Amino acid sequence: MKKTLIACALLTSLVGTSAQAASLIGFKVGGDYWKADTSGTFAENGQPQQDFNYSSDAQGSVWVAVEHGIPLIPNFKIRENSLDSSGNASLATGTTMSFGGKEFTGDISSNTDLSNTDFVLYYEILDNDLVALDLGAAYKKMHGSFRVNDTATNGRQNSEKELDSGIVMAYADAQVGVPGLGLYGFAEVMVGIDESSVYDYSVGLGWQFDGTALDTKVRVGYRDFSFDVNDFDGVSTNSQFKGYFAGVELVF
After folding, report:
1. Of 182, 36, 40, 159, whose CA–CA distance to 103 is shortest?
2. Which residue among 39, 63, 186, 248 is the one 20 to 30 A from 157 at the CA level?
């Protein structure tokens, strides 16, 4: 009988420890569909920047975050942003655009790929039904490119410069909710530290639906990503993606 009681006590202790460990760790997985207007100029460093007329294209982001209750150790979020748009321009007679060691004249097209990955470390400063606030730092790793194509040759003559550097950024995420209704407003902001003219922010409204195993958040809003840099991997540019988005986040 004593052995049975001891075994039950040990089992209860193990179950309690396991439940406590599970409650310390949470996961968030989400994605946004973003209809963005693109604008901007770019050039090889040291050359005058060329303006292009861009089309409005669908962009997207997906992310996963891991949160825990361990003191001093920050939470972690990784977000993949797909940002790719095409444009065109007509160079005036007698003018050229030098890019990647090639000279372009007449009608040209471009492909601006500012896809990037955000690595975010943050702390939960406030976390309740009324106000939530996360503060931290992020590293935005660029992995896109700028490409110029000669229209007359259907792009057979082209030149491309790839981006593979990153930007250290300050990070903040704030939410203000209406208790009992599941409605909340949010703002997520990233501002460059070593590149102060680079920012990425989103604001909007969301609705949270509580479930047994997971909570579901539906969100809509406006996002603006500005990439204004000089001599970034040999390219100077002032490019911007901005527009409305809709997304879903699952909280485990």
Report:
1. 159
2. 39
Nearest alpha-carbon partner for 252 in 48, 66, 38: 66
Mean pLDDT of 27-41: 96
Token pair listed for 62: 């997906």
Tokens of 50: 């060329």
Residues β-bridged to residue 176: 131, 185
Per-residue HEC secondary structure of 37-88 comes to EEEEEEEECCCCCEECEECCEEEEEEEEEEEECCCCCCEEEEEEEECEEEEE
Torsion angles phi and psi, residue 222, rounded to 5: -130, 135
CA gap 243, 221 in Å, rounded:
9
Report how far residue 16's alpha carbon sits from residue 205's, in angstroms, rounded to the nearest whole number.
37
The tokens of 213 are what? 């195993």
pLDDT 10s digits, 195-222: 999 999 999 999 999 998 899 999 999 9
Q: How far apart are CA 180 and CA 182, in angstroms?
A: 6
Query: What distance in Å separates the CA atoms of residue 86 and residue 112, rounded to the nearest whole number?
Result: 6
